[in-house]
Each structure stands twice: as C-alpha cells, then as structure tokens.
Design a protein that fits this description.
The protein has about 250 residues and is of the alpha/beta class. It has helices spanning about 20-25, 25-30, 45-50, 65-75, 95-100, 120-140, 155-165, 170-180, 205-210, 215-225, 225-250, and strands at about 5-10, 35-40, 55-60, 80, 105-110, 155, 185-190. It has a 7-stranded mixed sheet, with helices on both faces. Helix 3 (about 45-50) links the parallel strand 2 and strand 3. The N and C termini lie far apart (about 45 Å).
Length: about 250
C-alpha cells in the first residue's frame, strides 16, 4: 500500500539531532508515512537515519532546495511534510499541521512570541530581530507570518508541483512563499515550541553565513518589482501597521 504522507528531511551533518527528529514522529503518522532523509553529510547522519528506518538518499551537491526537490521526486505520498533535521521542529505537531491543511494549501509550523518564554536567551534574541526585519519584508508582499522562513511545512504534492520551484539553496522557502501569494493559495499557521538546535545555534548556516540572506531578499525584491504586485502595495499599507505591532511584541519577551 502506498504511503499517505511523505516526510522529507533535508540533512547536512546533523548526527547530533537526526535520531531525535525521526524518533519524535508520532506513531499514528509514521504508520501511514514514508520517511525520506535527503543527505549531503560527511558525518554519521545517514547511518543513523537508515538504522532508524528512514529511506536515505545521498546527493553529491549540498543545498536545501536541491534536497527538498529530490525528496519530492522520490516520494510516493500525496501529502508532503518537510522537517528540518536539526531538531528545532517538533514532529509531534505534524497532526496539527495536517488538520489545518484540510482547509489550506500550505501550512507552516511557526514560532511565535509565546513560544519563547523560558527558552534559551540567545535564540530569543535572534528571533526578535528575525521576526522584526524578515517578518516585515514578507509582510510587504502579503505573506503575513511572523516566522516566514519556517522549514516545518505541509503541502499537497499537486500544489507543490503547481509552484514549479527552481531554487536549490536556502531561498527555496522564500520562493515558495512568493509563489503561493502569486497563485492565491491559502496559507495557515500552527504555533510550535522553540526547541534547541542540535549542535548549538552557531551551527546554523543562516547564522554563520550572512551571504545566505542575499538570495532570499532578492526573491522578495523581484516580486515587489512586479507590476501587478505594485498595484496591490497600496492596499497593504494599513496591514503593515498591524504587522508592526505584532512583531514589536517580540521585544517584550
């Protein structure tokens, strides 16, 4: 019997967290799913994942977008669930994403101000600035989500293919957001806890390599330059004021 869901986990050197990620997938979801780990590691990540029952696909070239697209190509489920392999996404929340997906095209598992209370201070500080600056950038194009680059996502395979995503690197989530807006897709959010990253915060590529942000911003800027989008910007001005108040709450954490 074909799996109902395909859980796709792009990984690169996540041996400290991958077992936690796979073992945290709810049993009732796992029974109806295939777990696909698309890996470009030079550590024991693929070995651990395979021993825990995941289908491991080794790719020669790194890149989150490349890994996600390869995972979809190899998948059999009609619903795609993407998880980061660093342990920051709680698989226990997959049922909540799937419930929301019944009335949406794309569902994101997002961190919000309430999720950070009592959490690690460095992560709280990072997300304050992330939510303020990145959140506002995406709000301009109508993607009103406080955690717009969340890697924890659920989408039907038919909708994924309708987006015709081209990115091979970290900007794939930004491209997905923009194209969902273009197609008028309904986007929903599930608040999730803020968890520690396997290996620590400084192992994050987006933190240690600021150049990764340039392609992300470029995708949004190109979208803003689109003539059709410019006509809609006036309608979004009032919404931006509301957005500013939302992200300002991060500085009260």
């Amino acid at each position: 019997m074909e799996p109902k869901y395909s859980i796709i986990i792009p990984t690169r050197n996540e041996e400290e967290a991958i077992a936690k990620v796979i073992c945290s997938i709810p049993e009732e979801i796992e029974k109806e799913s295939e777990i696909i780990v698309v890996d470009s590691s030079n550590d024991y990540t693929p070995v651990i994942a395979e021993r825990l029952g995941a289908k491991v696909i080794k790719i020669g070239r790194k890149g989150k977008g490349r890994a996600m697209k390869r995972g979809v190509k190899e998948s059999k489920g009609k619903v795609l669930i993407f998880l980061d392999g660093d342990g920051t996404d709680p698989p226990q929340y997959i049922p909540k994403l799937l419930k929301k997906l019944k009335k949406a095209n794309l569902v994101l598992g997002c961190r919000s101000p309430e999720n950070f209370k009592g959490g690690e201070r460095n992560i709280r500080i990072l997300f304050k600035f992330y939510a303020f600056f990145v959140g506002l950038v995406f709000a301009v194009i109508g993607f009103n989500v406080l955690d717009p680059l969340a890697g924890f996502r659920a989408i039907r395979k038919e909708d994924w293919y309708a987006l015709d995503l081209k990115s091979n690197e970290f900007e794939i989530e930004a491209e997905m957001n923009v194209k969902c807006i273009n197609k008028g897709f309904k986007i929903s959010v599930v608040p999730i806890p803020c968890l520690k990253r396997g290996g620590g915060l400084l192992k994050s590529k987006l933190v240690t390599n600021p150049k990764q942000w340039l392609p992300i911003l470029n995708i949004v800027i190109k979208h803003i330059r689109d003539e059709k989008v410019r006509k809609k910007l006036e309608e979004l001005k009032s919404g931006l004021e509301t957005k500013k108040k939302m992200v300002a709450s991060y500085f009260k954490i």
